[in-house]
Amino acid sequence: MRQAPGKVLAVAAGVAVLASGCAPDTGSADGEYRVAVLAASAQNGYNQAVYDGVVSGAEELGISVDTKILDGGFDSTTQLSQLQTAATVGGYDGVIVVPHDGPSLAGAFPLANSVPVITVLNPIGPDVDDMEPQVEGVVSTVAVPPSDAAARQAEDVVDYCAELDPCKVSLLVGSLSSPLDIARRDAYQGVLGEHGNIEVVSTVEGNYDRYQSLSAVSNTLQSNRDVDAILSSADQMTLGAELALENAGIAPDSVYLTGAGGTTEAVQAVREGRWKANYLNFPASMGAAAMEQLANAMTDKPVETVVNADTVGPEGVEPYATRETLAEAEAEDFTGEWNG
């Protein structure tokens, strides 16, 4: 990569200001790349953290990038249209996607123009657990298989339940209309179903919302007040479950609570012992990793087809967090990469 004298990089939403650093060997006439970040929802904290990571990743790479975040509004049809437009009349050199529905986005490929696409959190294609690019045009996936992550959560519940018979467990998933959440639900049931002492008393949907989860878990507690564990696939929903327990007069720390996402609230809850564990995500670091692979693709450098999202976080922070792992010296200052 050749040095670009006098250019300084600073990237902001929709606008790139040139500052010191390196310019790419190829690209637009002025040495600047245009990158679209297709968010499942631009108002969602996780998606915003990914976008922030894309911006900071470009800064760290020393390339000039004009980035724009596009709001999918948690609608698969909207995001499909955005992807098709970005690859044709949008004039973008590359696209980073946080898919709302990875299988449905496969319908956009192959794209009209050969624009490299990086997908974050979920793959694009029919198999939500296959991280290798499944369609022509997707060059890299920054994620972990959702079934593997869900199975890891369930295994910890099995350990907690070892001395309880029966051990009553409630499953709290996002939406069972989503292939992603179906895969998680199936993984939970697959692991828990191997143990005769564990009884899954309910499976409810929280739609990744604290207050919908509060309502769903409150209803569950009316007939299952003696629940031993609530296994949740998202931190926002675990926060709702915690509120439901408190409203029912049940001490949250007397129930096994876990979540996934690694929000600042979740990390604090695990540190305080209110939750037993959390499967951390590192969305800002994932965004930076996606930008790195996109930059490689745009400059004809080797691209990693799969980036394990569990490995991109701060050094020494274990992705499966407990009170003990967060007390380790390398993790003691970690507070999470996003607010849910």
Automatic annotation (TrEMBL):
Protein name, as recorded: Sugar ABC transporter substrate-binding protein
Compartment list: Cell envelope
Keyword Signal in annotation: yes
CDD domains: PBP1_ABC_sugar_binding-like
Keywords: Signal
Domain of life: Bacteria
Residue ranges of every copy of the Periplasmic binding protein domain listed in the record: 35-301
Transmembrane segments: none
Protein family (similarity comment): Belongs to the bacterial solute-binding protein 2 family.
